[in-house]
Each structure stands twice: as C-alpha cells, then as structure tokens.
Amino acid sequence: MIRLFGYRSSLSLIVWSLVGVALIVCFFSIVHQSDTRQSRIYFRHPSATRELEEIEEEHFRLPPPHKANPRAVKRRGPHRSPNVIDQYLEESSEIHALFFPDERTAVNPTKVGNDSMYFYPGRVWLDTDGHIIQAHGGGIMYDHITAKYYWYGENKDGPTYQAHPKGTHRVDIIGINCYSSKDLWSWTNEGIVLPGEPTNVTHDLHKSKVLERPKVIYNDRTGQYVMWMHIDDANYTKASLGVAVSSSPTGPFSYLYSFRPHGFQSRDMTIFKDDDGAAYLFYSSRDNTELHVSRLTKDYLNITAAMRRILIRRHREAPAVFKLERTYYMITSGCSGWAPNKALTHAADSIMGPWKTLGNPCVGGNRFFRLTTFLSQSTFVLPLSGLPGTFIFMADRWNPSNLRDSRYVWLPLFVGGLTDEPLNNSFGSPLWSRVSIYWHRKWRLPEDWKKGYV
Ligand SMILES: *[C@@H]1O[C@H](CO)[C@@H](O)[C@H](O)[C@H]1NC(C)=O
Ligand SMILES: *[C@@H]1O[C@H](CO)[C@@H](O)[C@H](O)[C@H]1NC(C)=O
Ligand SMILES: *[C@@H]1O[C@H](CO)[C@@H](O)[C@H](O)[C@H]1NC(C)=O
Ligand SMILES: *[C@@H]1O[C@H](CO)[C@@H](O)[C@H](O)[C@H]1NC(C)=O
Ligand SMILES: *[C@@H]1O[C@H](CO)[C@@H](O)[C@H](O)[C@H]1NC(C)=O
C-alpha cells in the first residue's frame, strides 16, 4: 500500500512537474510574444508625430431633430424616425451646413499665410489654379521617376440627378482627374487623364454609366502606369472591373476592357502593390456581402486564377489596404449607400488571408464622429516613407444631393497604438497592433515625413 502510494505519488510528481515545465514554457512564450508586441508598439513614436497622436475632442451641438414628416415616415417604415444622418444628408439642413462649410473657409494654396500646409478635413480644397479639387473616391501613387505624388479621382463636377425615381443619386461620367504634388498639400491639376465617352452608348465609359474608385500603380517590368476602376451601369447591375494603361503618370490612359473577376460581381475595389512588386486586387462581391482578393498578373493587366473570399457575410465596402513590416491592414466601411457609417480595421499575416477584424480605428472627435468615420468613407491609405507606421487616411465626405460638392477628409493614421478592446485568439495567433485614425480639426504633416523618398 505504502509503496504503491509512493509509486503513485512519484508518478504524479513527475506528471505535475511536466505540467509545471509546460506552463513555464508557455508563460515565457506569451511574455516573449507580448514583448515583441510591445516592441512593435513602441518602435516608432518619434516626437515628430506626438502632437498628432493627441486625442482631440470635438464638441458641436446638433440641432434638435425635425418633427417627423408623415410621408417620410411612411417611406422609411414605422420603426425608423428621421435620424441625424438623414438630416445631415439633406443639403438645406443646419446639420449639413455644419459639416460642409462654404468656400470662404477653403484650403487655398494660392494664398500664402499662416495657414499654409494645414489640412482641414471637410473644407473646400482648392488646387494651385484656385479651382476646387475634383478627385473623389481617389487614390495616390508616388512616382519615383518624376519624384511627385499623383492623386487620381473621379471628376464629379456635373449636376447630380436620379436616372429614375428609385435610382441612386449620380453624376454623369466626366472622367478621371489627376493632380500632382511634391508636398501632398498644394495640388496642380494635370487634367482629365481618362475621359468619359460622350456619344457611343455601348462604351463602358459612356456618360450615362458609372466609373468609380480609380487606383493607379506603376509596373516596373513594363514601365506602364496601370489604372483599375469600378465599371458599372446606372443601376449597378454590371458590377465589373475596368483596366486602363498609360506610359506617363499624367496620361492619357487608354481604356482596355472591363470584366467580372472569376465571373463574380465586383463593385467597390482597390489595388495594392506589395514590396516585392506583386500586386493584388480587393473587391466587394456577391451583392457586397463579402470581399474577394486576387493577385494580379505580372503585367497588372489581368488577375491570376487564385482567389480568396474574405470577410464573408460582413457586408463591407470601400477597402483601403496598407502594410507595415510584415502585416497587412485594411480599412473598410459598411454598406449604407452615400450615408456614412462605422469603419473597421482588419489585419492579416498573409495578404490572401485569413483576415481578422480588429475594430473601429477612429479616435477622438466624439461618439457621433467615431460611429460615422468622421462623416466620411474610406478610399485610400498612403504611407509616409520618412515615418514608418505613419499614414494618411483618405476618405470622402459624400454630399449625395450635390455630389460635386463632396469633401475630402484626410487624417493621420498610426499603426501601433494600444488596443482598446482585447483582441480575440491571442493564443497562438498573431497579436496585431492597433490602428488608429486621429481626429484633428486642422493638422499638418510632421517634419521628416518625406525622408527616404527624395
Ligand atoms: C494668422 O493667424 C491669425 C490668428 O490665428 C489670424 O488672425 C490671421 O488672419 C492669420 N493671417 C493670415 C495671413 O492668414
Ligand atoms: C462603341 O464602343 C464599343 C465598345 O467599346 C466599340 O466596340 C465600338 O466600336 C464603338 N463604336 C464606335 C462607333 O466607336
Ligand atoms: C434601371 O432600372 C430602371 C427601373 O428598374 C429601368 O427603368 C432602367 O431602364 C434601368 N436602366 C438601366 C441602364 O439598366
Ligand atoms: C485574363 O485571364 C483569363 C484567365 O487566364 C483569361 O481567360 C482572359 O482572357 C484574360 N483576359 C485578358 C483581357 O487577357
Ligand atoms: C471577440 O469575440 C467576442 C465573442 O466571441 C465578440 O463579441 C467580439 O466582437 C470579438 N471582438 C473582435 C474585436 O472581433
């Protein structure tokens, strides 16, 4: 009995010691993991960006809601009273005026004063000729050959109308505009680099159709600038991708063709060029219920066979993809037409997925702002080469009743802030840094943002 007990106890001693060793190993690996995470979190933070990482609150008093108009209630159904967003979208409302300040406050590079180089999210923004910048749903490419940035976006400088009573608000296709800059603040109009088609009604770019979210990347092998875009008809039933090329960043781009990737619908989309020269396409598919990611061919003119479905049943659109060290990040919006909604950040170790959702990146402002992405929708995230971990978040503040007056919301985005909610699956799977977009009423780029490019 005693011997047997002794045998048993030494056996259990061994078992427990093994468990103990395993726990210690596990503990150290977690400590090690969180150490690398800490070092990831704090590797950057030069004092240059400290000011931009301060939380800035915004206090505005929203006017009291209008009395519900019985017709509107009928239209919206009994369960929805007209909310602040509905009012904000009406051009004549007080709330609207608060977020679409008139041209007197325009950001104006032709007027040199103590405001120069400051970004004012939501204000009218003029180019170096003093004209309003028309580059909606856009993206920016840095061109090493000319050492300039090029901003491509939709020219929406036409009347807004509905093609039929239930149709979405639209502007006829005018074309894709390009602006160039060395400082990201004063932009020179390079003109329409891909024009709409005025007469041929069967052409993809006929003015009655839809041309959105142009993105351009440079192909080092072919020396061509390649533009990808969303091509649709007025009812958004074509749901296709378009491709155009040019030998110059300022065009003209020749339109090649449109197609449905792997036979799937494609609406909001973006492309991302990785450090190794491989480029990828992201698009909202299957009635915007999910995103698909696919690698482009080496010439960037087509997609390869491999495709992954990501964020399935999440209903996300307006993807903007960026990378820091070896982690890929993406900001997306929800799907609520022209109305703003809450952004989410996603991250992945491999660009083809799996992608995990981290949460809402918006910091500061107030709750209303954070739940509406500062009343805007993501379109692009631009890395600042001199400040690793620092990016510009570019978004559109849409004005659906007068789309040409839609505004730009550019804000600093940082990778590396602390997470505000515990991330799921921290055991065994990667611990990603928090992505934060900081609200600022006015802000400018810190010193050294350009290092490494010039
Ligand atoms: C400079 O700033 C002051 C105070 O902020 C302002 O009153 C003044 O009009 C500004 N001057 C110019 C030229 O913008
Ligand atoms: C109109 O556009 C279609 C599609 O791009 C093209 O096939 C056709 O040749 C064009 N017609 C004319 C007259 O240019
Ligand atoms: C769009 O839908 C409306 C209503 O269903 C229809 O009348 C119109 O012909 C459609 N337009 C196009 C371009 O498909
Ligand atoms: C793109 O690739 C697919 C699959 O290889 C092919 O069927 C299609 O013709 C290609 N498109 C173009 C425009 O080359
Ligand atoms: C983490 O998991 C919980 C429960 O499974 C879920 O409610 C929460 O939204 C998740 N958080 C994130 C950031 O995905």
From TrEMBL:
Record flagged with keyword Transmembrane: yes
Entry GO MF terms: hydrolase activity, hydrolyzing O-glycosyl compounds
Transmembrane segments: 12-31
Coiled coil: none
Family matches, as InterPro entries: Glyco_hydro_43 (IPR006710)
Record-linked Pfam families: Glyco_hydro_43
Top-level taxon in the UniProt lineage: Eukaryota
Matching CDD domains: GH43_CtGH43-like (cd18825)
Positions of the UniProt region annotated as Disordered: 57-80
Gene Ontology biological-process annotations: carbohydrate metabolic process
Keywords in alphabetical order: Glycosidase, Hydrolase, Membrane, Transmembrane, Transmembrane helix
Basic residues compositional bias, start-end: 68-79
Family the UniProt entry places it in: Belongs to the glycosyl hydrolase 43 family.
Protein name per its UniProtKB record: Uncharacterized protein
